[in-house]
Amino acid sequence: MERTVKIGSSVEGTFDPDQLTVTVTIEESLDTKEECSKAYNTNLAHVRDELAKAGVPDSDISTRRFTLRPHTERLYYKKSKNDYYYAKTVIEGYEYSGKIVVTTSQLDKAAPIWLALSDCGSAVTFDMYFGIADETPARNSLLEYAVQEAKKNAEILAKASGAELGPIASIEHNFSRGGLSYWDDRIYAPTGFAGVPDEAEAPEFIPEPVRISCQVDCIWTLQ
C-alpha cells in the first residue's frame, strides 16, 4: 500500500480594485405590455443620457436582460350557492424588468454615476461594486504560495515520521473573495447622510482592497 501524507493550506491576499461595476435595474408595473415596452425604452434613454452627462461612454454600457411578464391574481367563486369554490386566474397588468451594466476602470466615476442614477426616478435602482478586472495573476500567485506552504508542512510531517517526501499525487484547490459594494438604499443615498448640507452630494466612496483566499488540499507520496 502506497504511503501518503495529506495536508492542506489556506492563504489570503489583498489586492487594490481596478474596476467599478454598476448594475442598474429598471422595473415597473403597468396596465399593458405596450406601456411596459414604452416605459422601459423611455427610462433606458433617460439612464443613458444621465450617464453620458457623468462622462460614461456608450462603450462602457451593456444590456444584460429584459423580462416582461403578466401580473396575475387568483379569484375564487361559486357557480351556485351550494357549489364548491372554483379558481380563476386573471391578468391584472404587466411587470417589466431590465438590467444594464456599466463597467469602467475609472474608479473616480463612482460619485458622478451615483448622482446621475439617483436622478433617474423611482423605476431605477442600482448597486455598485469595486473589484478586479482580471483576477488570474492574483489567483496564480496565491495558488503557488499555498502549495509551497502545504509542502513545507508536509516535509515536516514526513521527517517526523522517518520518511522522505516523494512526488505529489494530487492537488485540489478553491478560491473565495470579498469586496465592497454600495447599494441604492436609504443608508447610502445622498439624503441619508446626516450633516450633508447639499442633498445633491454623493457619499464618499473609499474602495477597500479586494480579499482573495485560496485553499489547497495536497497529497504527497512518502518514500
UniProtKB/TrEMBL annotation:
Stored Pfam families: SIMPL
Single Gene Ontology BP annotation: DNA damage response
InterPro entries in alphabetical order: 26kDa_periplasmic_antigen, SIMPL/DUF541
Gene3D superfamilies associated with the record: Protein of unknown function (DUF541), domain 1, Protein of unknown function (DUF541), domain 2
Name by which UniProt lists this protein: SIMPL domain-containing protein
Lineage: Bacteria, Bacillati, Actinomycetota, Actinomycetes, Bifidobacteriales
